[in-house]
Amino acid sequence: MADDHPVVLGGLITLLNEDKTFKVVATCGNGAEAINAIRALKPDLALLDVNMPALNGLQVQKTLNAENLPTRVCFLAASLTDREIVDAAAQGAFGIILKESAPDTLITCLHTIAAGKKWLPANFVEGASERQREHHAQIAKVSDLLSPREIEIMLKVAEGFSNKQVGRQLNITEGTVKMHLHSIYQKIQVTNRTSLANFAMAYRDRLAAS
To answer: Has residue 209 got a pLDDT over 60?
Structure first.
């Protein structure tokens, strides 16, 4: 098991020790320690926090795949982004479970994985996949509507720069910035700088989530 919070590790040890099916062979505080333990001990299961220092859970899974190590991974997380859910499933994780889950649910999850079956709730993974597809579609739509220069100007304006400041940064005239903004307003159907900034920030968030 690997988690960078000792209290969480302590709770997991107590929980699993109550179930005689499992034997905890190593506890680790980061992903690098987890990799070394898995290499040395070759456990059947690895219960890994997704967000850890010195290699996160997804990076540990990638390393296991690259080295063809057979340990089955279950990710345990306080929260997950859609991208993390999709990546975990795509990389071959056997399970994904949230820390808010009931202890009995975690035990059932681990028993399921130990039996060679996956614990990847369809609505959980498919919902994340669908939202990811929507993100990519929205980004592609904006990229089709606006030229690279217009996107650049839109993002600068969203950061609060004036037309003159944008022009200086991009080495173009203030008049050229105004012409680009007029074109942007028409293409994305907004009427003022505030609406443009809101649109731009949503676009930037979608880029970050891709």
So the answer is: no
